[in-house]
């Protein structure tokens, strides 16, 4: 059974981005996440990551459509 939650490191790997970039996505609210445990480790639901990716595809399609009416 796949894990429901991903770590920031998992997000970095999936999106091929740096640690500060992954953290910025979470802190800005662009990628919804929760903090768990005494140290407040960030966890991202796999479905939220997939939704974020889909939103980015949609934003890209909208930019292309706007640039080529």
- Named at the architecture level, the CATH assignment is Orthogonal Bundle
Helix content: 55-70%
Q: Tell me the strand percentage band.
A: 5-15%
Major sheet size, sense and barrel closure: 3 strands, antiparallel
User: Helix count, per DSSP?
Assistant: 3
Low-confidence stretches: none
Structural class: alpha+beta
- Which strand order does the major sheet show? 1-3-2
Distance between the termini: 45 Å
Radius of gyration: 14 Å
Outline of the structure:
The chain has 69 residues and is of the alpha+beta class. It has one domain (5-67): Multidrug-efflux Transporter Regulator, Chain: A, Domain 2.
Chain-wise SSE layout:
Elements: E1 5-6, H1 8-15, H2 19-28, E2 34-36, E3 41-45, H3 46-67
Antiparallel strand pairs: 1-3, 2-3
Helix pairs in contact: 1-2
Note down, in words, how this protein is organized.
The protein has 69 residues and is an alpha+beta fold. The chain has a single domain, classed as Multidrug-efflux Transporter Regulator, Chain: A, Domain 2. Helices cover 58% and strands 14% of the residues. The protein is built from 3 helices and 3 strands. It has helices at 8-15, 19-28, 46-67; strands at 5-6, 34-36, 41-45. Strand 2 and strand 3 (41-45) form a beta hairpin. Helix 1 (8-15) crosses helix 2 (19-28). The mean pLDDT is 95.
